[in-house]
Amino acid sequence: MSEAVPTIDIPQNIVILLGEANLLKLWVIGMIISAFVYGGMLFLSLSYIPLFLKTSNNISRHMRNFLLAYVTFMVATSTIYIITMSVALLRAIFDDLNLVPQIQEQYVGCLCIIFASWGADGFMVSNFI
Hints:
- The chain has helices at residues 12-19, 21-53, 61-95, 103-128.
- It has 129 residues and is mainly alpha-helical.
- It has one domain.
- α2 (21-53) runs antiparallel to α3 and α3 (61-95) packs antiparallel against α4.
- The protein is elongated and about 90 Å long.
- Residues 10-15 have low confidence and may be disordered.
């Protein structure tokens, strides 16, 4: 007489969750690296702002105003992005265990990446014109 092998019914969401665990780990590592880079960028940006406010004979007033607005825009874009992605990550870990960010977070994150890319590329192209 053979004994029956016990079977375990695993809910489908547990199987999916176990498959997405590596993705969640990569997302956490990416956010940690992004936070370190953001901290360095924020420190450099805040140290440059007093220099833009000083009068200088080397840089015109219009260029200083443009650079001040540019740095402020890029810092604001980076800040919004890091906050949005941190909220999405925390929500994925603690709330509904869904690794897909909410629609608002997706749009805001995409817009921040687009504006930051356009700002960096536009600044580099303006140096060649």
